[in-house]
Amino acid sequence: MAQEISTKDQFEFVFNAFRGLQTVQVISLGLQTGMLAALDAAEGGLSDGELAEKLSLHPPYVRLWCQTAYAFHVLEMSADSRYQIAPKLNTVLLDQEHPRYLGGFAQGFATYLADDFQRYPEAFSKGTVFPFWERGEHFSAWVSGLTHPLQRLVVGKVLPELFGDLLQTGIHVLDVGCGAGRLIFKLAESYPHCRFVGIDADAHGIAIARKESSRLGLSSRVTFRHVRGEQLKFESEFDLALMFEVFHELPVSERASVLTGCYRALRPGGQLFIVDETWPESIEQLRDPAYGMSIMVQFSELVWGNLVATESEQTRLLHDAGFRHLKRGDIGGTFTTILAQKPLRIE
Ligand SMILES: C[S@@+](CC[C@H](N)C(=O)[O-])C[C@H]1O[C@@H](n2cnc3c(N)ncnc32)[C@H](O)[C@@H]1O
């Protein structure tokens, strides 16, 4: 017989959720003030007094932050009473290159997403949205930091496995929803014979991308255009189209036209490669850890106007646009990958 759930159990369930929220605040503050980085850099750790002095912070607050972070298992204490970051947490919180880096999320949860949450009550009554491209350059740069570790993995491993020879030879690549352009820069630096076009609805992302492109000396092979995916006008020009964490951001009413535009932009035999989240198809899947990231992304991007598609929606839209030979995969059991081909001979 299933054990009855008590009020005490439910109190603890909610209490632990509060504790999780506060752990994020502690981490975010540790990142913003530099306390976590300073502790990581100090061999053997630091006392709270040394930490406060090093960063010119208010000592009583630093002491309480250290004690709270210790209570929450973010910090450990050495035998001589110095605080250190808990094992491997420096990788997860400070190493922006690591695929398991979550420091950017921690900062965003306590800043942008906390601000967004203030908008939820009104959004729930009026259905209002605050879209990506109205948020400013700082926000666009923050998002490009979030996607950077996953992009590294995709450029370093996933794409070479799928298209290594083609990329080496040199192909024409379209990045739809390129944001600040970092996926293109990684590819352009690894594959000097390829040419790239990045398009995005967000003028701030495109502005960052253009500046960075000329700084990196890539402007002869890389072009960025401030244009929406539903306005793509290319005809059979590209060998590969990419949509990296974009599909769920496309307005539902525009998804078909964006995919049709990608299809037209590709040469026959060209491929579209998508990385995105997938929404559970059934109630049971809502509690399946494989969808954990999708649920969090969906809830935190609600007022961006985003809607994570289910597998059947993704498949139907791609199929309707003309794509065939769909191959689904995943990255780390969390992110969906979809490879779809424009047939060599149109049926
Ligand atoms: C999560 S960001 C990802 C950006 C970039 N691909 C990356 O990996 O950093 C999603 C991007 O999709 C763009 N986007 C959303 N809807 C779009 C549309 N209809 N047309 C073009 N870009 C769009 C947003 O402006 C934003 O830059």
List its salient traits.
alpha/beta; 2 domains; Rossmann fold; seven-stranded mixed beta sheet; Arc Repressor Mutant, subunit A; 347 residues; 13 helices; binds S-adenosylmethionine
Unreliable spans are none
CATH architecture term of the largest domain: 3-Layer(aba) Sandwich
Query: Got a strand count?
Result: 9
Do you know the CATH topology of the largest domain?
Rossmann fold
What is the SS-derived class?
A: alpha/beta
Describe the secondary-structure layout.
Blueprint: H1 7-33, H2 35-41, H3 48-55, H4 59-71, E1 75-77, E2 83-85, H5 89-94, H6 103-110, H7 112-126, H8 137-169, E3 172-176, H9 182-190, E4 195-200, H10 203-215, E5 222-226, E6 238-244, H11 255-265, E7 266-276, H12 292-300, H13 311-321, E8 324-331, E9 335-341
Parallel strand pairs: 3-4, 3-6, 4-5, 6-7
Antiparallel strand pairs: 1-2, 7-9, 8-9
